[in-house]
Amino acid sequence: xxxxxxxxxxxxxxxxxxxxxxxxxxxxxxxxxxxxxxxxxxxxxxxxxxxxxxxxxxxxxxxxxxxxxxxxxxxxxxxxxxxxxxxxxxxxxxxxxxxxxxxxxxxxxxxxxxxxxxxxxxxxxxxxxxxxxxxxxxxxxxxxxxxxxxxxxxxxxxxxxxxxxxxxxxxxxxxxxxxxxxxxxxxxxxxxxxxxxxxxxxxxxxxxxxxxxxxxxxxxxxxxxxxxxxxxxxxxxxxxxxxxxxxxxxxxxxxxxxxxxxxxxxxxxxxxxxxxxxxxxxxxxxxxxxxxxxxxxxxxxxxxxxxxxxxxxxxxxxxxxxxxxxxxxxxxxxxxx
Length: 337
Description:
The chain has 3 domains: about 1-100, Rossmann fold, CATH 3.40.50.20; about 110-125 and about 215-330, D-amino Acid Aminotransferase, Chain A, domain 1; about 135-210, Dna Ligase, domain 1 (2-Layer Sandwich), CATH 3.30.1490. It has 11 helices and 16 strands. The chain has helices spanning about 15-25, 55-70, 80-85, 90-95, 105-110, 115-125, 140-150, 190-200, 250-260, 290-300, 300-310; strands at about 1-5, 30-35, 45-50, 75, 100, 135, 155-160, 170, 190, 205-210, 215-225, 230-240, 240-245, 265-275, 275-285, 325-330.
C-alpha cells in the first residue's frame, strides 16, 4: 500500500484524489492536511490533520519532514510552500519520500516570479511573451498604462508574484456605462479606482502592466511519459463550459515550454489567444484546479498516469479521436463530518 500526503490543497483535489484511486496500479492510502479543518477533500482522505499556521518557510519544511517520518509517507504531493519544499527535495529523498514534482529549484525560482519567467523565455527565443511593463511605483504604473493605452483597447495588471490570479485586474472604463448594471464586474476595475488602490500600495512586489489579451484562455495540463508528451489543452472563457481540443500549435508550444524547464511530472501552462496568436500567461509547477475537467473530456487519467510513473509503472494512454469536446461541471452536494 502506498501512503500519499496532500498538504493544504485547493478543494478541486477532491477529484484528483478520486482519480488516483481509480487508476493507480497499487492501493493507495491518502492522508490530507489543511489549515482549514473543514476543507472538502477531507471527505476522501483516509486520515486528516490540521496544519500549523503562522510558521516560517523553514519551520514549515521541518514540519513536513517530521510529518513524513511520523506518518511513513511514500509520496508527498505538495502545494503549500511548494518552492521551499522543492529546494529541500534531497532531504525528502534521504528519508525515502518521493515528491510529486520534479521541477528543479532554480527553475522554480524563475517561475515564481512572472518578470523573471518572461525574461527567461524571451531570452530563449520564445515569441509568445506579451508586451509587459514593470511598475515599481505609482508613477511608473501611470506611465506604463498611458503608453499601452495608445495601441490597446484595454490594459490589465497583476503582481509579479501571485497565485490564482488574486491580484489580476482589467482596467475597463465601461464599468461606468449604463449596461454595466446587468454585468458582473468580475476582475474589472476603472482607472480612477485602480489609481486609488495602487497609490496606497508600497510596490514591495512590482506590478506587471500589459495589454489585455481578449481571446480564449487555454489551461494546459501536461507531463512527459515513456510514450511521449501528454498534453491536454482546455479552452476557457466560454461561460459554463470549456472545450478540450488538440491543436498542433498549442501542443507544439506546450512541448517546447516543457522541455525548456525540464519538467517530466505534471505542470500547468496558461496561454491566451489574442489576434490569432498564442501568448504565455504563466506556468504552474503543479496540477491545475480544473484538471478533472480536462481529463474527463479527453478520457485520460493524467493524475493516475503520473502517480504510476513515479512508482515505476507505465500506463497506456492515447489521445481521443474527436475534434473537440465540450465539458462543464455542476455543483454537487457533499456531506461529511
